[in-house]
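User: Structure with zinc ion, tokens only please.
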Amino acid sequence: MVTIICASCAESPFGIQADGMFKCIGCGELLAVSDIDLDGTDVWAVGADGTLGYVSDPAAALTDLMEAVEDFLSSDQCPNAEYARIVSQISATEALGRYIDARRAGIAAPRLGYTEDQIHTAVNEGADMVIEALNLGGGETDAINLAANGALFCLANPGSSFAEMVEENYGETVEEIRSWWGWN
Ligand SMILES: [Zn+2]
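Assistant:
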């Protein structure tokens, strides 16, 4: 964790108070959580002694770690493969260190993916949300539901065609679907 130094006195760190605010232990400057200004790849954390600091966002650290692993795996394609391997290993070690640091500071592990059920629910909720909010008619509703079903079909079968999707989901041909609302 990197300790955040007060910008007002430029010398002391902040300590957490009972009300959730942070107070500079030197000049007494107050800092609210909403005023903590960090890079998008960092998150604030509180040390065991109540000092305010920041650590890498675990999600960003994991992304960097995965990129370093990919770089390592493709190092043979680099003009200087040995150098590329060493650089990627250093990057991986550094990213892993940032991840461990963030987890030790109590930052939750990032969610790595969604279950198929969650994706189905989200896609269908999104479709229903738009259809209801815009009070759409039958043709538009059907088109949006086709898109939702297409997205879910492609989740399981990437690169599928429209014809394959409607055959499987609706048991109809493309021409039959087109005929629903005079689409062409
Ligand atoms: Zn200060």
